[in-house]
Specification:
Elements (H helix, E strand, L loop, with lengths): L1 H10 L31 H19 L4 H8 L8 H12 L12 H16 L5 H12 L12
Helix pairs in contact: 1-5, 2-6, 3-4, 4-5, 5-6
């Protein structure tokens, strides 16, 4: 099943395998052939959506650390090996599980999303696509209040 999701993330231009919901993301492909996961027009739009979901984790759920974020993103009740996912993300980023992340700092979110993409898709992400996604994300409407003051 892991290989199928890795291929899906690339095929759907959805590098973090965001599940389909009622949300109408900017950059969705006209056709949504995958019944479980969104399909985006480009990887940059897939990364933009990932940055926004992670920002929402901060604002709505008050999740700030790598460990908190990964435990919500890949919970064991969905069949994930959450601890392995966390270990892999921490190894790839060099972040400790308890590192507090700021969703407005590219030096926090870029490495996190790159590592999560690598875990989800099984291949090294293309950094310019992440940067394009970040630029699209920074133009996205903000939540009412930031969860960080630094």
């Amino acid at each position: 099943m892991e290989k199928l999701n890795q291929q899906r993330g690339l095929r759907n231009r959805n590098p973090l395998n965001i599940r389909r919901t009622a949300d109408l993301w900017q950059g969705l492909a006209e056709r949504q052939p995958d019944p479980e996961f969104f399909t985006f027009r480009s990887m940059a739009y897939g990364y933009r959506a990932a940055f926004i979901v992670l920002r929402t984790y901060c604002h709505k759920y008050r999740l700030r650390t790598v460990k908190e974020i990964i435990r919500r993103w890949a919970p064991p009740e969905d069949g994930n090996d959450t601890e392995d996912y966390l270990r892999r993300v921490c190894t790839l980023t060099g972040f400790s599980p308890d590192k507090c992340l700021n969703p407005y700092k590219p030096e926090h979110m870029g490495p996190l999303v790159a590592a999560m993409s690598r875990v989800e898709c099984g291949t090294k992400p293309v950094m310019h696509q992440i940067k394009e996604g970040w630029a699209l994300y920074m133009g996205a409407p903000e939540e009412p209040s930031a969860c960080f003051t630094d």
